[in-house]
Amino acid sequence: MTAISKTAILARLSAVRAPGAEDDIVAQGLVSEIIIAGNDVTFALTAQARDARAMEATRRAAEEAVKALPGIGKVIVALTADRPAKSSGTPAEAARHARGTAVPGVSRIIAVASGKGGVGKSTTAVNIALGLVAMGLRTGILDADIYGPSMPKLLGLTERPRLSGPGSKKLKPLERFGLKAMSMGFLVDESTPMIWRGPMVMGALVQMLREVEWGALDCLVVDMPPGTGDVQLTLAQQTPLSGAVIVSTPQDLALIDARKGLAMFEKVSVPVLGIVENMSYFLCANCGTRHEIFGHGGAKAEAEKLSVAFLGEVPLDAELRRRSDQGEPVTACEPASPLAAVYRNIAGRVWQAVASGENSRKPPPRIIIEK
Asked: What is the pTM of this model?
């Protein structure tokens, strides 16, 4: 089978033009970093929000052009609203430029992600965020899972966000336990299915990120959608992320998907701060026996193999499940419990990793020319 290359894909895309443009979409710098996973190809086309409808035909043309290549499987092409600055550097540098738009008032943004659903990512994200609050950091959380938002349930929030003030077009985030929060679940009924295509989802995420009055935050935690599809990729490229935390359970099946998530962030030059092993073990409340239901240590071994920090292990715990379902996160409602201590330790390591990464970025040396 012929290997699929970015060169061949770009050659195909060079024949596609946007409406009213003289140059092709590649020459215009509209094509994001191309991700090849086996026979599947994912990339995004950037466009001004006002041109999104007109660009839909171009998106379909780009998709068909790439599908015509021999050996191609699934092709996912998304439209994004923000256009990155042109760069003549490497794809990684181009991705960094694409993420250059900061969120007003927010100092750092940390993504919590998983390669698949069902590993406890959202529970981990909210408790890490509350761990940061416990450290005295001004913290917010953005629920970026449009199709399955979890923050209303996890934080016990049912009211609707309001505009931040008279004449303002920005929403005021809801707040509980000292944590500011925004979620699509605050805006629509939980029984309403979100039957949206990628461009609509990205538009909603951009609005929740940049059209919310977050105020001054030391850190915004983004609870990413599960998986590594077009929404996850585009969000990673279009958001100025300080780093990402990968959540996995110990078993091999979950670790396979965790590797995909880690590889996605590496491809768009987002530093991976570390891996959390969730549902690491179960401690029987009656007999005190430890049971490793999903295996144990797989995430730690994977972290060592990939030279990524291991942030900690979280047990499978009935009290954690109960409090999460009741909107009473354990880190805020049981701060003296061993579980809360686990999450605070993970939050501390995450924050230390962010600070270490920033401190390691030394300024370039000065070049002095003597006359």
From this structure: 0.68
